[in-house]
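Q: What would this chain look like folded?
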Amino acid sequence: MASQDSFGAKSTLDVNGTSYEIFRLDAVKGEGLDVASLPFSLKVLLENLLRTEDGADITADDIRALAGWDETAEPDKEIQFTPARVIMQDFTGVPCVVDLATMREAMAELGGDASKINPLAPAEMVIDHSVMADVFGTPEAFEKNVEIEYERNRERYQFLRWGQGAFDDFKVVPPGTGIVHQVNIEHLARTIFTRTVDGVLQAYPDTCVGTDSHTTMVNGIGVVGWGVGGIEAEAAMLGQPVSMLIPRVVGFKLNGTLPEGSTATDLVLTITEMVRKHGVVGKFVEFYGPGVSALPLANRATIGNMSPEFGSTIAVFPIDEETIKYLKLTGRSEEQLALVESYAKTQGLWHDPSAEPRYSEKLELDLATVVPSLAGPKRPQDRVELSNAAAAFAGDLPTYSSNVDAKVPVTLADGTSFELENGAVTIASITSCTNTSNPSVMIGAALLAKKAVEKGLQRKPWVKTTLAPGSKVVSDYYEKAGLTPYLDKLGFNLVGYGCVTCIGNSGPLIPEVSAAVNENDLAVVSVLSGNRNFEGRISPDIKMNYLASPPLVVAYALAGSMKVDLFNDPIGQDAEGNDVFLKDIWPSPAEVEETIRGAINSDMFGESYADVFAGDERWRSLPTPSGNTFTWDPASTYVRKAPYFEGMPESPEPVTDIAGARVLLKLADSVTTDHISPAGAIKKDSPAGKYLTENGVDPRDFNSYGSRRGNHEVMIRGTFANIRLRNQIAPGTEGGFTRDFTQSDSPVTTVYDASVNYQAAGVPLVVLAGKEYGSGSSRDWAAKGTSLLGVKAVIAESYERIHRSNLIGMGVIPLQFPAGQNAESLGLTGEETFSITGITELNEGRTPKTVKVVAEGPNGTVEFDGVVRIDTPGEANYYRNGGIMQYVLRNLLRG
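A: My prediction, written as structure tokens:
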């Protein structure tokens, strides 16, 4: 894209003899334009506009609007952000590649050039979501789990290898390497990006969008990036800028240092609770102040990672000495280190602890006040101080169990007997990107395991213990420090390098434990070092889930129950029968630091990532299809041609109002994308399970919903199929059930079966919801499935950012109830017939602020003005075209 350079910002930067073209921020001058005091994140966006100014999508007025940002104003100015690259994981990446492959065929069918469907921005995918902890607690666990992973996912992996060959600028990091966000921060991220454009070497801030909401982990090294749905990521790969409003920026000032006994996890759970309470949905959060300098990079990454749990778009740290130290440790070249420092200082992106940029709102935390904490039993923002965890559990238990004092005798296959109670820790998992990138908590967990073993402690026999580090480097430094045997002794053997438990790939519980739980409806718990603990996500057997630091995960495996007060009760007994308390085995910060200094060096990162895209023998020996278009296997239950472009005309049809719509679901507050499109286990008697059985798949080979996202037939049937979903128009049910109003007696049936009948009868559908609809993962299938079920509109009290955008990207209009009102206050039961008028105003190039909603039901007629949440002109274009993919395809066809 040719730069207009209205401000004369184009310049050169010489770093150790290499000359780079840069666009200087200090060139933007004028009345009311104060670039120097802008927040770090907005400076990065400003550079993006300067470099991509083309006089059409990005204009000099856009640049002035950003440079003259009014921190007090509500966002109303749209800009087009062009990320440097796109990062994907395989659960969300497979459907992206399916869509691109389908788009190539659609382009050819419309008479266009199929090769135009090709990433224009570098795209990298890390396969990290597919490994399951089937085998645990043995030295062979890792090898066996990888073997099972390849058996289960062979078709998907062959498809991804085809994509790697068929598309330019698309690279795949094979299975068994690490978690996408850790591979991103340790290897793929550049902090300052370089690319040759029209024969000139440019340098500019590394920015990215990713198909996983925790893409924000890379904010820890000064990279402005965030999670988007797969559909938005596809558009970004195909050269479409990301449409956004210039956001409000919340400055979060950090002072002091963490006290002894408190970890990065405790800090991030404290920040999550604070920021959620403050309200930051759709805003940028940026950390500044003297406490930033005292915060190790790994802790910054842990905080950045949890941005989706705050609800913010990003949670970014500026570039400073600590950034350079980390880049050096992780094996970046001397040239890169010099470029990052020189560029950041030249452009005013280097952190000054004494400076206070302009912010829309401010928060402050003294790190010294952070205390050991958990979050649970069902949301990351529900922080509980560890000193109060046992009491809080007792208070929550009656919600999850009708028999709080149940005790069930269990005998394992090896003859071990015990009584299983509510609150038993049945999974203790060191897993997920949040913490397994952080040496202080990972070494802390291993040192705690060492002290526990030396005291003669063991995990309780009902606990499934798993260790799934974010990268191979963790295994290297455990080995070097001599700590692996102690973790193994407690059953924390390596099960894989991937998300595992946090994404719902926890694998089965110990069989006898699972049977006891299900036969007696026990409320057992998981404790994991992850970032997500939503209902139904971790394991179908487990109702209550707690996030904790890796050392606390080990501690709870030893204690075996949430009823144990880790501050006051013994965690176990030593060989002589003496009580051992948590304080007796908790490692000091000095011990942790000393171990880190002796065990971690930059050579480890260099060796781990030397040939990161090559993969092991299993990967390299996979037979790989070739050709520009993919040959679909009609018998495949993993990868099928997507239906989005069937019968698509060259020009979009006019949008229409909605008449005669029925309610598919009526939902309460905080419905997550996990509720809408679960990633975990597929139940045998569910519509998706029945489909797989009918197609000859044995239940043991069902795999997960996440792994089958390349097959729309499975995913439509899995939409709204979370086992913990409660649909208020089918009271007394839990799971994917609704009432079918096409039948005279409105029977309760599955959401999928009802949808089939509605679509056959030509009846459009709506979903009614409460606050924070669509919070959680950036799951494009939550929107794709909603659309394919025949839903035309969602009416909610409020939305999380990514899901609202994804609904528009799939041609579903997101509406909000009038301020202060909801389904209950309006008297809506879900039995009404809805009409929505005023949508057709979009055909005239305008986006209506509200549309008229009329609901006629047994209790009379309800009318209200639905607030249209199509927030930008770009989103309006997507909706007019029936979705973002159709819009992009038509643009490429014309171009």
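The first helix runs from residue 40 to 52.
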